[in-house]
Amino acid sequence: MHRRFVLVAVLLAVAFSSVLAAEPKHTPTPAEAVVPAYMSAIRVGDWKKAGNLLHPEALAEMRQVFTALTSADPSGQAAKQLFNLAEGETLEKLPAPEVFARFMSALVSQTDGLKELLASTQVETLGSVAESAGVSHVVYRLTRTSTGQPPTPQIEVLTVKKSGADWRSMVPPDIAGILASIRSSIAQREAMLKQMQQQQQQGEDFPQLDLDPQAPPTP
Asked: By residue range, what is the domain housing residue 10?
């Protein structure tokens, strides 16, 4: 609750300061500088550089979710399509930034218009709130432009955290949304499998699908 109050206060302060046209642009602190560096790497498609700007805890969270995703696919297609895993390769053995880089590469190549959208990224750091000596919440204005659409600026908050002597980004908002979607899909699949197992144990029959294209329709 306290953290949410602080972030709301920062956003209100940012909104107020934006009307003061005479004020000079904000100069990012070392903690805040992670945001434009990460966004710059995303803009040009340098996924490895972007991955190296993520905190080890963020990379570990991503690897955990991605591993669960590939484990839920016995065919191995998810591992090949999303991470280009060769024979004998596993997500556990890949360097953490490489896992992120492969995922982003596949995501962009397989999503129409995403490369152009990310290439339009513009970011302006507005300020930050230090939660502790090693954690800070950075407020920034993010602007992206879809083909044929006007620019869409929005205010976002990104948490950054010390990793040794360097500041690194925690999971960015857009990636957090993807991870949440994957978790939800896995949870739904597990719930469905659990329900099927329970029905099998109770001796219930499942309707059979006739997949023979030559079979006549059943009256």
From this structure: 2-14+30-186
